[in-house]
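Tutorial, part two.
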Amino acid sequence: MSASPTTAYKVLTASEMAALEGDGSFAGAPVDLADGYIHLSTAEQLDETVDKHFAGQSDLHVAAIDLDAQGDTLKWDPSRGGQLFPHIYGPLLLETVIAYGPLERDDAGKIRLPVAG
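Running the prediction step on this input gives:
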């Protein structure tokens, strides 16, 4: 297996994104709170995550998270089909978000990753 990525992505509703911006931290969506950690996806996992867990939802946002800045709160846990997914065991801090923006897809239907200005 190649080295773990240093960036992962969190899909947020508009109200969740506003809370992260306003409060500087985000404790998690209902599913995160129920599971005890914040679910993230790698760039390769993001399309499937959105299609599976956010189908039909609009006004979504994608935040790019600096995994190196998570320290001991970051764990890689097996999930769908044994794939390892990054999870944050603690709040998501705005200071560790390196870029974010509305969830948009390109002409091929792939999610455009947010790019820092």
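The CA atoms of residues 46 and 102 lie 14 Å apart. In part three we will examine how such features are distributed along the chain.
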